[in-house]
Task: structure prediction
Amino acid sequence: MEIEYVLRIAQTAQQQLVSLTPMSVLMSWGIEKFAAIIYRDMPALRIKVNGRLHTGCVIVALNGSDYYEVYLQDEAGTKCVHEEVCFDELGDVIDRAIESGTDKAEYDEFCQQQRDILLKGQPA
Result:
């Protein structure tokens, strides 16, 4: 696989993610760096994150069907979160896996507690 192709796919995935995901959501992931890699013979973007539910790496790989596959990687290993993600769903899929989870009410409560700590210096 040519490195230029891998770089182009990783850059495209990064641009799609950054342009279609609200900045507050991206910031909640604690992103440290982006890198272009080859993962399981697919061109991919690796993102180092420090989220509420996952700390480690997120791998966004373009498969042969023109869908993204999303993987979470940490010291325990690598697990597939979703195998068929469209570009416009990428931010939501990653956010549910590493930060917000599937319980919106629980996450909203967590966020309110964090705001209270930041603004008032104490939990609600």
User: Anything to note?
Assistant: The longest helix spans residues 3-20.
